[in-house]
Design brief:
mainly alpha, two-stranded antiparallel ribbon, 4 helices, 3% strand, globular
Length: 147
């Protein structure tokens, strides 16, 4: 039960943060005060799976320095991003994101250092700090939710 609750909380928090981030970036580019963000329903299980990445890192590297865990998060998040994007693309013909080309629906934004349009190395700092933030979120849940 606890694992399911954490999975749902990671999923909801991840999608909410993505919508916030996309609307903020859109505002900085267009100055549109409507602050419109977006995500995809595919992102719920993908963000939920971040829980298992955090549990793995916390279980295998609990006493390693934060910067080392940050590097491990980068690698594992890139793997999760690539595999989940490839899975959704294989299922539907398109991934929830596209780092290779600009798409008509605004989901794609070309990145210079991308791999198959599914991961981009420009996001390494984001995944480094995002992984550590997810770890803090997990520790918060562990200390505040009793089931």
């Amino acid at each position: 039960m606890k694992l399911f609750l954490y999975f749902v909380l990671f999923a909801v928090f991840g999608v909410a943060f993505e919508v916030f981030w996309v609307s903020l970036l859109d505002f900085l580019k267009t100055h549109n005060p409507r602050l419109k963000g977006r995500s995809s329903l595919w992102m719920f299980p993908i963000y939920g799976c971040l829980l298992f990445v955090v549990m793995f890192v916390r279980g295998v590297f609990p006493s390693c320095p934060w910067w080392f865990r940050g590097v491990v998060y980068v690698v594992l998040i890139l793997v999760l991003e690539y595999l989940s994007g490839a899975f959704v693309r294989g299922l539907t013909g398109v991934a929830p994101w596209d780092y290779e080309r600009k798409t008509s629906d605004g989901v794609g934004s070309p990145k210079r250092y991308n791999i198959d349009g599914l991961v981009c190395l420009e996001y390494v700092p984001l995944w480094f700090f995002g992984g550590l933030a997810a770890e803090l979120f997990f520790l918060f849940l562990e200390s505040h939710i009793i089931l």
